[in-house]
Amino acid sequence: MLLLLALPAAPAVAGNEAFRLDPVHTRVAFRVDHAGLSRAVGTFAGATGVLEFDPEDWRAARLEVRLPLSSLDLGDADWTRKVLAPAFLDAGDHPEAHFVSTAVEPIGPDQARVTGQLSLRGRSHPVVLDVRLNALKRHPLTFRRTAGFSATARLDRRSFGIDTWPNVIGHEVELLIEAEAIHDRGAAAPAAPETDDADPQ
């Protein structure tokens, strides 16, 4: 899914530092019920994006992320191909997932609840991330100022038109995210969230 942005990027917020996601050290894992027997686990890699972040004021933070669905790994090539097919993610027509934050609520000195619009498979719906800042420091190898985060979220796959095999695969999907973002003075501001005219919320 490559949805084009219809709105211009917003200006940077005073006090925010600009970071770019490190695709090598950013992973999105998911778990979903498999016939009541176990929880199937998959991962995505190669995320790119921009973060504006002030550790003294989480409310001003803004985030935009794009995730290539072709990076899916379910541990089995045949099963991975099935999930990328039109009945599930339809990655041929919609090769990316896209997230843009809309609000950030601090819930502790190193934690926040980030609400945003997730665009997946041609539909956009709100998703809430529970985020923890693990560290904000100079990386010991690259010497670049780096922020490290862990995050979790839950979504209903049916909201994005993925309703195949309802008696085998659970509706609720749990997301587990580990991310690092590198300070970048030249990073562009995150874009405004997309709207889904065909599926209004």
From TrEMBL:
Residues 18-182 form the Lipid/polyisoprenoid-binding YceI-like domain. InterPro entries: Lipid/polyisoprenoid-bd_YceI, TTHA0802/YceI-like_sf. SUPFAM superfamilies: YceI-like. It comes from the Bacteria. This is Polyisoprenoid-binding protein. It comes from Arenimonas terrae. The lineage of its organism: Bacteria, Pseudomonadati, Pseudomonadota, Gammaproteobacteria, Lysobacterales.
